[in-house]
Design brief:
eight-stranded mixed beta sheet; binds 1,6-di-O-phosphono-alpha-D-fructofuranose; alpha+beta; about 325 residues; five-stranded mixed beta sheet
């Protein structure tokens, strides 16, 4: 029987599935000024650890890994078992990979010396939004990558650890949501990859992501409005007058990701309870600020650019305003 002459490239029954993450990283390695392949390997290590965490997150209800460890982390939050598990997975992957010399993590009081000659320093929140774990709501991992400044022969110093966000060479997040996504930047735009668990691979699904300059979604924990400043309360009133939509998941990665795609603003302001805000500069805000700016958005502490804040402490907090450029500018007052 004669088969119709279907050209493979035009066939709708075999749509291309997009570049695999490994291939994308390799093809774009030259964009990076220290194109030695180590940063590429580092990103692959993080992506691999995220697959393992994803597997554990997905079966959280089936095995005994939900709930609390009975201990507290540096922030005084109850450590959830999955927090601890994720921290171990990422630490192990980075230690074995050998590209990173030090790790700053929400789960550790001081930085972790990974005992190798790696040229990079990583700041990570291994599992953000952990209070959402037990109720099956999206959670995420957030990471920042910095170049080590001291020579590898010398002990790791404060100048390696306490770097400004503007010195990040890469940052990203993994969203464990209705699908699992890895979104990252190396300072040349933002690209998003969706994990196909049947193939065990991330594929480029959101190339060159751009946040709309204007948006109509505001994300803030309005239950705390009584402890906000007048300026923040005024901005919330403005959002209501404009009939904006309120959306707040309580998982920073999920709230940020939605606003990145649809246009919006996420605010965790200074409150009377937390005058410096709640979120952590080094392993929550810097990474997302880098992505927001690379996507055409803005990130401030209410007045100052997040990426210009010089950290004095690993676990330093900051108010955080991030999202569509016009909204963040307006919220400044
Ligand atoms: P948890 O990891 O303790 O759930 O905190 C999540 C988070 O750091 C961030 O992901 C949320 O946007 C924010 O805190 C929620 O804080 P509130 O519960 O105070 O609104």
């Amino acid at each position: 029987m004669l088969m119709p002459n279907i050209r493979v490239e035009e066939s709708r029954i075999a749509q291309p599935i997009g570049a695999a993450l490994d291939r994308f990283i390799k093809n774009n390695q030259d964009q990076f000024q220290y194109a030695s392949g180590e940063l590429s390997q580092l990103l692959r290590d993080i992506a691999l650890a995220a697959k393992v965490v994803n597997r554990e997150v997905n079966k959280a209800g089936l095995i005994d890994i939900m709930g609390s460890m009975g201990s507290q982390n540096t922030a005084g939050d109850m450590q959830q078992k999955l927090d601890v598990l994720a921290n171990i997975r990422f630490t192990r992957a980075l230690m074995k990979g050998g590209e990173a010399c030090a790790l700053i993590s929400e789960e550790s009081e001081s930085f972790v010396d990974l005992n190798n000659d790696g040229k990079y320093v990583i700041a990570i929140d291994p599992l953000d939004g952990s209070s959402n774990i037990d109720v099956n709501v999206s959670i995420g991992t957030i990471f920042s990558v910095y170049r080590r400044k001291s020579p590898v022969s010398k002990p790791i110093s404060a100048e390696d650890i306490l770097q400004c966000g503007s010195e990040q060479v890469a940052s990203g997040y993994i969203l464990y949501g209705s699908s699992t996504m890895l979104v990252y930047t190396t300072g040349h735009g933002v690209n998003g990859f969706t994990y196909d668990h049947t193939l065990g691979e991330y594929f480029l699904s959101h190339p060159n992501m751009k946040i709309p300059v204007d948006g109509r979604i505001y994300s803030i924990n309005e239950g705390s409005a009584n402890s906000f400043t007048d300026d923040v309360r005024k901005y919330i009133q403005y959002c209501k007058d404009e009939k904006y939509t309120a959306r707040y998941i309580g998982s920073l990665v999920a709230d940020f990701h939605r606003n990145l795609l649809k246009g919006g603003i996420y605010i965790y302001p200074a409150t009377s309870k937390d005058p410096a805000g709640k979120l952590r500069l080094m392993y929550e805000c810097n990474a997302l600020a880098f992505i927001a700016e690379q996507a055409g958005g803005l990130a401030t502490d209410g007045s100052k650019r997040i990426l210009e804040i010089k950290p004095k402490d690993l676990h330093q907090r900051t108010p955080f305003y991030v999202g569509s450029a016009n909204m963040v500018t307006k919220a400044k007052g």
